[in-house]
Design brief:
The protein contains two helices and 33 strands. With about 500 residues, the chain is mainly beta. Bound molecules: beta-D-fructofuranose. It is an enzyme of class 3 (hydrolase).
């Protein structure tokens, strides 16, 4: 990767000549890894989803954006709107680093409705001349014509006493008529924490205090928190940094997970079960939730992680968002299913029914690069089943299921080009119940695997060659009886 100087990273898009941007765009458009039904950056680097809301009949989905290359530089918010969370209209940057408070990045934040208007609350990232970080929390209001007016100064000017300047990512929520913001923080002992603020008028925000959880020593920073009620439970999400890997758990550089429990907002006590990762694949971070037009809780994440080099970096772009997922809690467990409306993308249905055994079988007459594949496991006597996707003569992306351990393992070691600085080639998870169903979304350079109707999700980027289109099934020993349903998907968002 070319080394970017600080000047290059903090160059504003407005100061770059048109020719540079056109060249970059041309290079990005030529990439063989461009996605077809995922939100991806026009150029440069995409990270966290921001400002997700259904407001007056329209969905707003923004993302963190550094336009000029595949590095974490000066961040903007790039905005899309949608009528159905399936097709999206791009609108370009909606929040720009144009005040002294956000001069070094419009960092992550959320959207909310107040007095009939759409507002954003986000973190202003500022560096002083000694490159010390100053984080403040800002508010911006969207005018009728879609333009943005920032409040003249931050509504929370700095972190409270006892915390460092790693203080960011406000997620606003409303209970009765009061607005609250949950914030990511780091205490002076360099431990991750969550802070809660409240307001009655959105201008004056009062610190209620630190949320008391059962986690005291759990990483040095908890980024991108979220809080919501779901099916009678309180749920908190956060992204801890600095956890050690623990067998199959916490294998990525940073984690992203949830805790289910009971939150007493008066005493700020969150009595919760253990922290569980939201996704067991290689590439998932910084998700945010909101409610759709039916009041259903929806989650969208960043299908990427910081500090990893991806094969598309060379092409001037990196990352994408995940498909939206519907969240529910069933029998006390969080379930994540693909957003129902994505069914609109389906065409060319193909099905196959049959046995597979240890001799690699082509159960199915199809192949592809962008599709949804539903595999129903009807009978299984196999010790291990291997589903291979995006296969060519030399590459294969493997999902293995071991019956005895009840474990799903995703293996991308032979899947094509690989991201650098990633530990290990596989990610595994033990299911709650024997494997009955896989619902897999494959796009040009990604795979999202939903196991057992929302029980587990594994999301990963893959970078196979263009001829890697095969689908194969085999077993170690024994046989498996399967029903395959495949739909081609295409959207070009
Ligand atoms: C998470 C994060 C956030 C921050 C943003 C900056 O990926 O580090 O904590 O607001 O990215 O781009």
């Amino acid at each position: 990767m070319t080394d970017w100087t600080r000047e290059e990273r903090y160059r504003r898009i407005e100061d770059v000549d048109v020719a540079f941007f056109k060249d970059l765009k041309r290079k990005v458009d030529q990439s063989k890894f461009r996605q077809t039904f995922h939100i991806q950056p026009e150029t440069g680097l995409l990270n966290d989803p921001n400002g997700l809301i259904y407001y007056k009949g329209t969905y707003y989905v923004s993302h963190q954006w550094f336009p000029l290359g595949a590095v974490h530089g000066l961040k903007y918010w790039y905005n899309y709107t949608s009528k159905d969370l399936v097709s999206f209209e791009p609108h370009g940057p909606i929040l720009k680093p144009d005040t002294k408070y956000d001069s070094h990045g419009v960092y992550s934040g959320s959207a909310f409705e107040y007095n009939d208007h759409l507002y954003y609350m986000y973190t202003g990232n500022h560096r002083d001349s000694d490159w010390n970080r100053h984080s403040s929390q800002m508010i911006a209001r969207m005018a009728e014509d879609g333009t943005i007016e920032k409040f003249p100064k931050p509504v929370i000017s700095q972190q409270p006493e006892g915390y460092t300047s790693h203080f960011r990512d406000p997620k606003v929520f409303k209970i009765d008529d009061r607005y609250y913001a949950i914030l990511a923080a780091q205490n002076n002992e360099e431990q991750g924490r969550l802070l809660l603020y409240a307001t009655d008028d959105i201008v004056n925000w009062k610190l209620l205090g630190e949320i008391k959880t059962h986690l005291t020593n759990f990483g040095y920073m908890w980024e991108c928190p979220d809080y919501f009620k779901l099916d009678g439970y309180d749920v908190m999400l956060m992204c801890p940094q600095g956890l050690e890997a623990d067998n199959d758990k916490y294998r990525n550089i940073y984690q992203s997970g949830y805790m289910i429990g009971d939150f007493d907002i008066d005493t700020l006590t969150f009595d919760h079960q253990s922290f569980i990762e939201l996704d067991r694949g290689f590439d998932f971070y910084a998700p945010q939730t909101f409610t759709d037009e039916n009041g259903q809780r929806i989650l969208i994440g960043w299908m990427g992680l910081p500090e990893i080099e991806y094969p598309t970096d060379q092409e001037g772009w990196a990352h994408c968002l995940t498909i939206p997922r519907e969240l529910t809690i069933e029998d006390g467990k969080l379930k994540q299913r693909p957003y129902k409306a994505l069914e609109k993308l389906r065409h060319n249905k193909e099905t196959a029914l049959g046995y597979a055994n240890k001799f690699t079988r082509k159960l199915h007459p199809y192949e592809g690069k962008q599709y949804e594949l539903i595999i129903d496991v009807l009978e299984n006597d196999a010790t291990e089943i291997y589903f291979e996707l995006r296969t060519s003569k030399t590459t294969s992306t493997v999902i293995a299921y071991n019956k005895e351990e009840n474990k799903v393992t995703f293996d991308r070691s032979e899947s094509g080009l690989l991201p650098a600085n990633v530990e290990d080639m596989t990610r595994s998870t033990v299911l709650d119940t024997p494997l009955k169903k896989l619902q897999i979304f494959v796009d040009t350079s990604s795979i999202e695997i939903f196991c057992n109707d929302g029980e587990r999700v594994l999301s990963s980027r893959i970078f196979p060659s263009e001829d890697a289109i095969g689908i194969k099934t085999s077993t170690e020993t024994g046989q498996v009886y399967l029903q395959f349903t495949k739909y081609d998907l295409r959207n070009d968002i």
